[in-house]
Amino acid sequence: MNANILNNSSLRPALFWSKSKKGWKRIIASNPIDILEGDKTLPVEIIQQYFKKYTGKLILGFISYEYGVAQHDVITSNPSLFNIPDVYFAAYDKYEEIDKIPLSNDLVDPRLAFQSTTSKQQYLDAIGNIINHIRQGNIYQANFTHFLKSEYEGESYQLFKQMIRQNPVEFSSFLHTPDFTIHSLSPERFATIRGNSIFTEPIKGTRPRGENQAADNQNREALLSSEKEKAELNMITDLLRNDLGKISEIGSVNVTKNREVMPLEAVWHTHSIIEGHLKENVSPIEAILSMIPGGSITGCPKKRAVEIIDDLETYKRGLYTGTIGIQYPNGDSDWSIAIRTLIEQNNNLYLGIGGGITLDSIPEDEYAESLAKAKSFMEIRT
After folding, report:
1. Total number of domains in the chain
2. For position 161, which CATH number holds?
3. Domain assignment of residue 76, yes or no
4. What is the pLDDT of residue 228?
5. 146 pLDDT exceeds 80?
6. What 8-state DSSP symbol labels residue 319?
């Protein structure tokens, strides 16, 4: 399948790519046989029926953050920067597994010119508000986000090729439709399901990569020694262990990796892995629907955290911090947390960034961390 097909939005092409075998399968698909779209009021039963109907086919798509919080009876009231479905899935009877894709070395200036849709002071004030909620005992942690925006009038697939060339990760995905395009460079696994085994891999804790080896090592050690970052990941690990416990066989849930370092092109992260065995009556898509929105991008307790998030954030998140997923014909599936994700619509690009806030958070540091996560996008040359 060539780039001409991937640039043809009428074919609704999709490319899922991983820098290694640790992520999802490397797949290209186009010309879906059926599409499911809906807003946050779409009954979960409709999604389950769609997946049951197309058992044995390739299914890929996404679920928005707002759809997830609606399952907790929280209805977001903020305006949206873009207009895409809360639920989008496409079923394909033909697809291609690939070993590599053409990556162009042609670079054209200028860089993408991202501008924040929220002022720095608004961001700092919101962080202070979250810390006050923590002091009052309303929550233990919350994930706060904001958006950057840039104009873009080039070819969609050319942009995605350049993105994965500069920042290869395990959960890259490109979904091109007549109404919107998704460019995701997520490093974070939401869930992987193999048979009745399920595991999730939350990421918490960030430091920028250093300009030289000494600085890089120093930043890595600063991340590992940070009590704030340690507490943040521990809380989310406990939350996700609880989420898995609701859908897994009794006694099967375990933390198999605890706070290991994850190196990326622009930042260091720490992550954990929690595993379980699904109950016999729980299907893979039911498991995903029960876990959304992900604990790493909400906070704990989850419901109160998302209520506070809605009060403080300026815009709806949409797909950002939702989940992107692919279910293979054999029933196994992989799902990412939709971070480091560009939404392209009407010659504009929208990039959500943010981070987890705890009692020990320093607002200025949190603002700098959010920009560090956007660094690889700000340096894209198209």
Report:
1. 1
2. 3.60.120.10
3. yes
4. 85
5. yes
6. T
Within 8 A by CB and 6+ apart from 217, the residues are 210
Write out the residue range of the structural domain in which residue 267 sits: 3-99+110-378
| Cα dihedral 49→52→58→60 (10° resolution) | 30
pLDDT the model gives residue 166: 84
Q: In the chain, which ranges are E strands?
A: 14-17, 27-29, 34-38, 58-63, 87-92, 95-97, 115-116, 141-151, 171-176, 181-186, 189-194, 197-200, 203-208, 254-263, 267-277, 299-300, 323-327, 333-337, 341-345, 348-357
**260 domain residue, yes or no:** yes
pLDDT band for position 382 (cuts 50, 70, 90): very low
Within-domain flag for 114: yes
Tally Cβ neighbours within 10 Å of residue 256.
10
**Strand 27-29 vs strand 14-17: parallel, antiparallel, or unpaired?**
antiparallel
d(CA 144, CA 314): 10
What tens digit of pLDDT does each residue of 23-49 get?
A: 999 999 999 999 999 999 999 999 999
* Percent of the chain clearing pLDDT 90 (strictly above): 76
The mean pLDDT value of the chain amounts to 92
Residues with catalytic roles: 188, 204
Distance of CA 165 to the CA centre of its chain: 19
Q: Which amino acid is at 357?
A: I
- Residue 105 forms part of a structural domain: no
Query: Can you list the positions of beta strands (E) in 196-314?
Result: 197-200, 203-208, 254-263, 267-277, 299-300
Q: In the numeric block, which tokens belong to residue 90?
A: 């496409």
